[in-house]
Design a protein that fits this description.
Blueprint (H helix, E strand, L loop, with lengths): L1 H34 L8 E5 L2 E6 L10 E7 L10 H9 L3 E5 L14 H17 L3 E11 L1 H12 L3 E7 L12 E6 L4 H13 L3 E6 L11 H14 L14 H24 L14 H17 L10 H17 L11 H22 L9 H23 L3 H20 L7 H24 L4 H19 L5
Parallel strand pairs: 3-4, 3-5, 5-6, 6-7, 7-8
Antiparallel strand pairs: 1-2, 2-4
Helix pairs in contact: 1-7, 3-4, 7-10, 8-9, 8-12, 9-11, 10-14, 11-12, 11-14, 12-13, 13-14
GO molecular function, one term: aminopeptidase activity
Family: Belongs to the AB hydrolase superfamily.
Pfam families: Hydrolase_4
Length: 480
């Protein structure tokens, strides 16, 4: 027996080591991409008039030289970090860039109230841009996405000193006549965005509408064509390119974040093998359980719509969080049998910490702001509790079957989509649901591995739900 166990132990160690090395290589490659995304230009965080900003200055400035300046504004549920590829592109082409976090978004701790605040915050960002010693005050422009596109077109129409504006995924035709307006819309966006760009181009002089092929509302931000059109438009309005440098790829930051995220996901295997050394037999999923799953999802979706959730200051998230508590609670009520063991607390704590690193670090470094600000510090535990309850109910129901976990995830996605379509909640949830679906699928894979290693259901639920809850709590806007 000993002669057989030693080779098995060696094989186990080699397997774990190889997987850990793969995870390390992926993580290192991701970190390298993110670190090199902006070239020699390094973003610097500042605060002006209470508004969190990033400054990005081009490399190679001569003493006393002044360059054109650009303020970049994000969309609904976005952040300055989400728009950072435009900071890379514009600074790489010689522009001085300021990116802001609107109230209720990113690192801004203030609650979102209305469009008047957007204009005030744009004014603060523009004033800061003009105060910089390397900015030519006669050559300033604006770039905005979605909600930010509406804000910058309104601002440009009221401030004729703004030389040019680029509006990406503009939701509605702007009032007034902003000078030199370029509108970019994704080929796969909702028809209303295309109609807006076409109508505005026909009404506003010195404007142009361009459709970016193969992208939708979010991926348009990372399309090389989007960045090239933006640079070409601004270069022409400012009398030619500031520099002849090639613009960096807008995909470097998200690609780096993706590789780092993949490395951390792969790294779960060696960590889990160290924390949980058991081996469990997974039961087959009983398809008859789809009936209570569907019924509970329908009831939860209808009841969540009438609950007094307006006190919860997470825009579009109040309904979703209420749904998770209701859906999870109903699924637990229809189940029989005792819950599983509640041991292995130290291992569970390590697993939850690893889940936090897995979801927060890659997204913070290469995608959008993940670090809670203001009220998000107490919102995060509430959102996590809702998804943890739902996840625990799914674990109990499925008995470790990936099909069972996916069935509950599918019911969640379908119910939230239907609620948004039927007007039971904010229609913006339709843009959030695809991301939620991806996170729920990742959580299902996470759950499958841990179940095979006989990890406790409660620990799997706590860690896996954090992968879903943190991005929601960190990105949806905070309202007053």
């Amino acid at each position: 027996m000993g002669a057989r166990s030693i080779p098995s132990l060696v094989l186990f160690g080699v397997r774990v080591l190889v997987v850990a090395l793969i995870a390390a290589v992926l993580g290192a490659a991701g970190l390298g991409l993110v670190a090199s995304a902006g070239g020699e230009a390094t973003p610097r965080r500042v605060v002006a008039d209470g508004v969190p900003l990033y400054e990005v200055h081009p490399a190679g400035l001569k003493p006393g030289e002044r360059r054109p300046g650009v303020v970049v504004a994000h969309g609904y549920a976005g952040s300055a970090k989400l728009m950072m590829p435009f900071g890379d592109t514009l600074a790489g082409r010689g522009y001085v860039v300021v990116l802001l976090d609107f109230a209720g978004h990113g690192a801004n701790p203030k609650a979102r109230t209305g469009s008047a605040d957007l204009q005030r915050e744009l004014d603060a960002a523009m004033a800061h841009l003009r105060s910089l010693r390397d900015v030519d005050n006669a050559r300033v422009s604006l770039v905005g996405h979605s909600m930010g596109a509406s804000a910058v077109t309104e601002y440009a129409a009221a401030h004729p000193e703004v030389v040019a504006t680029v509006a990406i995924s503009l939701p509605s035709v702007p009032e007034g006549h902003p000078k030199n307006l370029l509108m970019l819309v994704g080929q796969a966006e909702f028809p209303g965005f295309k109609a807006t760009a076409t109508e505005a181009a026909a009404r506003i002089a010195d404007s142009r509408a361009v459709t970016i092929p193969g992208v939708e509302h979010i991926s348009i931000l990372y399309a090389p064509r989007t960045h090239q059109e933006t640079i070409d438009w601004l270069d022409q309005r400012f009398g030619g390119p500031v520099t002849q440098e090639a613009i960096p790829s807008p995909l470097r930051r998200p690609a780096g974040a993706g590789l780092l995220f993949a490395g951390l996901l792969v790294g779960l295997y060696p960590l889990a093998r160290l924390l949980f050394r058991g081996r469990a037999t997974i039961e087959r999923f009983r398809w008859v359980l789809l009936v209570p799953v569907a019924g509970a999802a329908i009831v939860a979706a209808l009841v969540a719509a009438v609950l007094p959730t307006s006190w919860f200051p997470l825009d579009s998230g109040d309904y979703a969080v209420a749904f998770t508590f209701l859906f999870g609670g109903l699924l637990l009520l229809v189940q029989r049998g005792r819950p599983g063991p509640w041991g292995r607390v130290p291992a569970a704590v390590a697993l939850v910490a690893y889940a936090a690193v897995t979801i927060v670090v890659p997204l913070q470094l290469g995608f959008t702001n993940m670090w809670p600000a203001g009220a998000r510090w107490w919102i995060l535990p509430v959102v996590w509790a809702g998804f943890a309850l739902l996840s625990y109910a799914a674990e109990r129901l499925s008995r470790g079957s990936m099909l069972g976990i996916l069935a509950v995830a599918a019911a969640t996605v379908v119910a939230l989509t239907a609620a948004a379509v039927l007007g039971l909640t904010n229609g913006f949830l339709l843009l959030v649901v695809p991301l939620l679906a991806v996170l729920l699928v990742l959580q299902a894979g996470w759950s499958t591995l841990l179940n095979r290693l006989a990890a406790p259901a409660w620990a799997i639920a706590l860690a896996g739900s954090l992968l879903v809850a943190w991005p929601i709590a960190a990105t949806l806007p905070i309202t007053a």
